[in-house]
Amino acid sequence: MLKLRRFLKGYTKEVIIGPLCKLFEAILELLVPLVMANIIDVGINEMHSVNYVLRMGGVLVLLAATGLTSALFCQYFASKASQGAGTAIRRALFRHINSLSHAELDRFGTPSLITRMTNDTNQVQQSIAMCIRLLTRAPFIIIGSLIMAVSINAQLAWIFFGAAVLIALTLYFVMNRSVPLYAAVQKKLDKIGLISRENLSGNRVIRAFSKQNTEKERIDAATEDLTRTSARVSMLSALLSPVTYLVTDCAIIAIVWFGAVNVNAGGMKTGDIVALVSYMTQILLAMVVVANLVILMTKSGASAKRINEVFETVPSVREEYYDYMPLHPSEDTPKIEFKNVSFNYSSNGDDELSGISFTVKRGQTVGIIGGTGSGKSTLISLIPRFYDANEGEVLVDGYNVRRYCFRQLRRQFGIVPQQSVLFSGTIRDNMKWRNPEASDGEINRALEIAQAAEFVNKLPRRLDSRVEQGGKNFSGGQRQRLCIARAIVSQPEILILDDSFSALDFATDAALRKALADNAKDTTVLIVTQRCSTIKNADLILVLSDGKLAGQGTHSELFENCEVYRDICLSQLSETEVAK
After folding, report:
1. CA 443/CA 445 separation, integer angstroms
2. What is the pLDDT of residues 207-240, one digit of tens each?
3. What is the pLDDT of residues 468-506, one digit of tens each?
4. pTM for this structure?
5. CB of 179 within 8 A of CB of 301?
6. Local structure of residue 401 (DSSP, 8 states)
7. Which one of 273, 445, 487, 561 counts the least CB within 10 Å of its CB?
């Protein structure tokens, strides 16, 4: 929690004044038993004065009203500081997550990051509010009640000290055993989030395979696991209140018993016993508050640890330069060049790519083909620096990609990933992602090239047609074409299509490739595909096999000289079709 205190810097006033208000309320509360003792001993037993009782009653009302006002001010400051800090944590967390490279995002996982931004941050936010309101008040009430008890009767005060020690030991016992369990609860929540996300996003697949019962068993097992762990924590936490009340009630019985003996002996007054019982009750209530604070702080401590884990994660791909670099490539400078590049996702694993070297000229169309898991998507992820090569160099316009600032490098790219991702809004909103100033003419041209204009123009509102979350109101092929159009609108120097024709029929595939060739002659196009027909006419074809470059060249050259490529072609086309 202490590592997150930086998010309270803008709320110094609230953090200081809030506890002071609560401290003032606690002082007033400690005066109440003394006033009650005076009412009994002076107003009733000695003076028999109704006026004195009424005056002291008015004092009690004044103390209560002043304490209430002070508590309301504290509540306001606590809410302002906690809500502000929670908002700042979410913003900083979101900003930091977006600075992480793909490797770190893969390691944490989407469900876990969502839980940390929502549930964990809410726990921290709640603990900040409760700390401002109660962290100073509860200990002050306990210590103040002990001091007041000593001032009334030093002998009976030992009962207070004994009760306080027993309750403190109970708190330590519960806290020591519950902290690891709260951390486990948060991890189990992550697992439930993962299963829920998979079920909601893959609902059609689950129904198609009639796996509803299997998935129900998965979620039941995860929730039962969470229930068992939560029950263990709850059982521990449930010990606090009864043990605290038991110790306090025993202390009150002892106070009344020994106090009555002292009253009979003339060593105490009746009002003193009432005051001591009131102070014991205040200690009880304060201890209950401390117990709840312990539970809350335990939860928030586990949550803060998970949040700090994200903040302390350093992206593996770091921006080394922040200013635009002057580029002066000649006509002969390759647009993209790989020099003996090797890469793996983990330091102790086998290389995903090994010894990759090739050159792509400006304006060329490059096809990348290979079996599943051969490293095609990994290779293209190195060009815009989603990952960094472990060995070798990746160059764009003759400069190592590490020398570019992210914005300068990535603004050259238009990327269409394997999974077609559209965002809620309108078609026009999605088309303007890279270039907010894009005109309708530029958007319509991109839609024409991507073979999406036909179905968009049939929609009642055309470019203003609604796009649901994830583009669920469009078919797979329509989503792919809209994603390709979005990449083209930005007029990129390098267009990467990562298996982006998979949902297209062969006629649309051919028409799209022809439109790209006719309208994007100055654009370097990289096409990752499983279809030989898609890249037959490419200027350069790269063939990957088990992370290595099995061959590079034109279609005819590779068919003659590369066995891997020949096998892929003949598995899809006849020899007559291959020769065309």
Report:
1. 5
2. 877 878 888 888 888 888 888 888 887 777 777 7
3. 877 777 887 888 888 888 888 888 888 888 877 776 777
4. 0.69
5. yes
6. G
7. 561
